[in-house]
Write a structure and sequence with these properties.
Blueprint (H helix, E strand, L loop, with lengths): L4 H24 L4 H12 L6 H5 L6 H11 L8 H17 L3 H21 L4 H13 L1 H4 L9 H4 L2 H23 L4 H6 L1 H18 L1
Helix pairs in contact: 1-4, 1-5, 1-10, 1-12, 2-10, 4-12, 5-10, 6-7, 7-10
Length: about 210
């Protein structure tokens, strides 16, 4: 994975998009299906060589790119503490996961089963969400501390919503892995912030022209 500001911006945008979708499901019981599909497909992109291949291009991460700009730019009036907390937790859990090779293998096996099932059921089928959610519970949830998701209890208590939330958290952690592979770090986030924001804004302009 090339270490570049563009790739780091894409990976971070993926985390923010996942976090935003988690919030949508938790508070409203629903989320944008196309954005959800982008995040779930990223889990199944085992052989992708570039971040554009993982996400199908920056156009599919426009929400995440917008959120990145809102959350990271200095003195932004649109900072969402809930979304930031999810992303910070994703980055923390990714670091813990990378120290657990056996868990990584278990995680990969569970995702591969879901990928195979998606060929029959479709990528957003309840069975796929359930499989990914169970995989998350069997792996990431065991690392601790668990990500505490806020929301309406009637939505959080719905098993399908709970599975979608876990699948999205898993996709966010996949984004955190890609962030690290693209040279991302806490220091890059601090000292490379302006360059990354410039890349995010450029991609938003570029994809707006293409759409």
């Amino acid at each position: 994975m090339e270490a570049s500001h563009r790739n780091r911006a894409l990976a971070l945008a993926a985390m923010f998009q996942s976090a935003g979708l988690v919030k949508d499901v938790a508070w409203r019981g629903q989320c944008d299906a196309a954005q959800l599909e982008t995040m779930i497909r990223s889990l199944f992109a085992f052989e992708a060589g570039t971040l554009d291949e993982v996400y199908g291009g920056a156009v599919n991460l426009r929400r995440g790119l917008r959120t990145l700009v809102e959350q990271v730019q200095a003195n932004s009036p649109q900072v969402d503490g809930e979304i930031s907390r999810y992303v910070i937790n994703m980055l923390y859990l990714e670091r813990k996961l990378m120290k657990q090779p056996d868990m990584i293998r278990t995680l990969r096996d569970g995702i591969e089963v879901a990928a195979h099932q998606s060929e029959s059921f479709g990528i957003l089928h309840e069975n796929i969400m359930s499989r990914l959610g169970q995989t998350y519970q069997n792996t990431i949830s065991e690392l601790g501390p668990r990500i505490i998701v806020q929301g309406e209890q009637n939505h959080l208590g719905n098993p399908h919503n709970a599975a979608r939330i876990r699948a999205l958290l898993l996709a966010g952690i996949r984004g955190a892995v890609l962030w690290r592979q693209a040279g991302g770090s806490r220091w890059k986030l601090i000292f490379g912030r302006n360059a990354m924001l410039a890349e995010a804004r450029f991609m938003l302009e570029e994809t707006a022209e293409a759409s």
